[in-house]
């Protein structure tokens, strides 16, 4: 995909993505703030109450695929604005529930869908508007997640202390409605932009259209009809007939019924790519470590004797690390000498080292330094998920690829914190669970650094296979020519 000529509006897309990730990620963390209040209000067990946050996290991850499909059907702008409204309704209805099980739907499902689908829409729009500076733009946009974790965790706790958990949910409903405002900035690329990206002026194309024959004009009209029926809701330009065939194919591929049919997803080229499969494995390993530390770092600090009011700052310090270091990782991507898989591996190793430091740090200062480094590394490697997809598979696969990979987030979010809690109950501390996180993070770094070598091997095999196929074809042609010559001679 060529660079979009409108160089100013694409930075508005980055700002909109920052706002979306700020509100989406921050709203997800706000539910965790009311965990203790929900225990007191409904008097259910900790496991039953914890299902609210677990369902929310899982639905947010699962809704990434829904967001991509909906964006291809009705557009990114409409998808984000509708989902922002759903999230606001979810928060508002959660404030008036009469039992905990109603929160499973209002808080877990509605807020999960409303905050998850816009997240992937922002990432995909950055992929549409950026080519050369995709990494820095994406990291700047995703910095909103760290800022939301840092700011909204304090804000929500302050609201709970002053207005109670029901009042906090009502105020969060109004705040989350601003996702609709951010979504209004996601101006879609028009068909005319695709023509401009080819470097051809409108006047030149109109002059060429005048010289088209009647048959060519009919073919151009058919292409425009097909484009309109595919769900692209843009004002059609008469220059569509001059689009290159691959450019028309790029625009026409937005049919969600085709792109997200289970058969097509399983037989598509991306899901069968060896590099993509390794990326899935790497993400499962890194999220195993990240979820264990993220969920249990506060409880580990309290086990060491830290006061509750001080240990609650750990989550904010982790968000601060993400907020500061995600733009730095994006800036480092400018250097052609530093590859994204190297930066991602370094970030994972930093997370592993910080996890070991968390295990052996006995004072609050040491724990805060270690958790800051962990947050910085986690922010870098998670932001580079989409960057690696673009590096190995191109910007056209960033939406679907990110959505498929994020499904591992939901699976690990449901299982790994539970496993770590069981290990803590079994052995009396978090040392074993955190060592499991360390090994998983190092294994993820090893898999990530191997991606370019696997990619090179796969490409070499494809070239060899094509060469053999061409050679076999030529041998078959020579055999037929020899047989024809013998028949002619006889």
Q: How are the secondary structure elements laid out?
A:
Blueprint: H1 9-33, H2 35-42, H3 46-74, H4 76-94, H5 100-129, H6 134-176, H7 178-183, H8 191-197, H9 202-210, H10 214-229, H11 245-252, H12 256-259, H13 262-267, H14 274-303, H15 308-311, H16 313-332, H17 340-360, H18 364-393, H19 398-427, H20 431-449, H21 451-489
Helix pairs in contact: 1-5, 1-6, 3-4, 3-5, 3-19, 4-5, 4-6, 5-6, 5-19, 6-16, 6-18, 14-17, 14-18, 14-19, 14-20, 14-21, 16-18, 17-18, 17-20, 18-19, 19-20
Write structural notes for this entry.
The protein has about 500 residues and is mainly α. The chain has two domains: about 1-195, Growth Hormone, Chain: A, CATH 1.20.1250.20; about 265-450, Growth Hormone, Chain: A, CATH 1.20.1250. The protein is built from 21 helices and no strands. It is globular, with a radius of gyration of 26 Å. The model is unreliable at about 195-205, about 210-260 and about 260-265 (pLDDT under 50).
């Amino acid at each position: 995909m060529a660079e979009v000529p409108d160089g100013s509006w694409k930075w508005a897309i980055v700002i909109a993505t920052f706002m979306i990730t700020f509100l989406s990620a921050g709203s997800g963390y706000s539910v965790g703030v009311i965990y203790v209040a929900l225990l007191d209000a409904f008097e259910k067990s900790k496991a039953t109450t914890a299902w609210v946050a677990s369902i929310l996290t899982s639905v947010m991850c699962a809704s990434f695929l829904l967001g991509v499909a909906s964006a291809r059907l009705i557009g990114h702008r409409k998808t984000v604005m509708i989902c922002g409204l759903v999230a606001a309704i979810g928060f508002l209805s959660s404030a008036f529930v009469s039992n905990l099980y109603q929160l499973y739907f209002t808080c877990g499902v509605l807020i999960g869908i409303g905050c998850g689908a816009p997240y992937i829409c922002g990432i995909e729009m950055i992929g549409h508007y950026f080519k050369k500076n995709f990494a820095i733009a994406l990291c700047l946009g995703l910095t909103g997640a760290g800022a939301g974790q840092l700011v909204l965790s304090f804000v929500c706790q302050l609201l709970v202390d002053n207005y109670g958990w029901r009042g906090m949910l009502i105020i969060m409903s109004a705040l989350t409605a601003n996702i609709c405002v951010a979504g209004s900035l996601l101006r879609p690329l028009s068909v005319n932009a695709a023509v401009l990206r080819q470097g051809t002026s409108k006047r030149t194309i109109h002059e060429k259209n005048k010289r088209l024959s009647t048959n060519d004009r009919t073919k151009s009209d058919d292409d425009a009809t097909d484009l309109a029926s595919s769900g692209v809701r843009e004002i059609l330009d008469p220059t569509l007939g001059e689009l290159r065939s691959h450019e028309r194919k790029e625009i026409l591929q937005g049919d969600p019924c085709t792109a997200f049919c289970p058969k097509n997803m399983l037989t598509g080229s991306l899901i069968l790519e060896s590099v993509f499969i390794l990326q899935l494995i790497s993400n499962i390993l890194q999220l195993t470590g990240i979820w264990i530390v993220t969920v249990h770092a506060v409880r580990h600090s309290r086990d060491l004797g830290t006061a509750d009011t001080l240990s609650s700052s750990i989550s904010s310090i982790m968000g601060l690390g993400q907020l500061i270091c995600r733009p730095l990782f994006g800036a480092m991507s400018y250097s052609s000498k530093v590859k994204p898989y190297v930066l991602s591996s370094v970030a994972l190793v930093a997370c592993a080292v910080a996890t070991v430091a968390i295990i052996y740090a006995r004072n609050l200062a040491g724990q805060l330094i270690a958790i800051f480094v962990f947050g910085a590394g986690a922010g870098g490697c998670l932001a580079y998920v989409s960057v690696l997809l673009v590096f190995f598979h191109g910007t056209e696969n960033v939406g679907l690829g990110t959505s498929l990979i994020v499904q591992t987030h939901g699976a690990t979010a449901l299982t790994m914190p539970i496993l770590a809690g069981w290990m803590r109950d079994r052995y009396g501390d978090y040392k074993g669970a955190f060592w499991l996180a360390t090994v998983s993070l190092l294994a993820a770094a090893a898999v990530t650094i191997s991606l370019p070598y696997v990619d090179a091997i796969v490409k070499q095999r494809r070239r060899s296979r094509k060469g053999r196929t061409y050679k076999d074809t030529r041998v078959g042609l020579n055999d037929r020519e020899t047989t024809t010559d013998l028949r002619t001679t006889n």
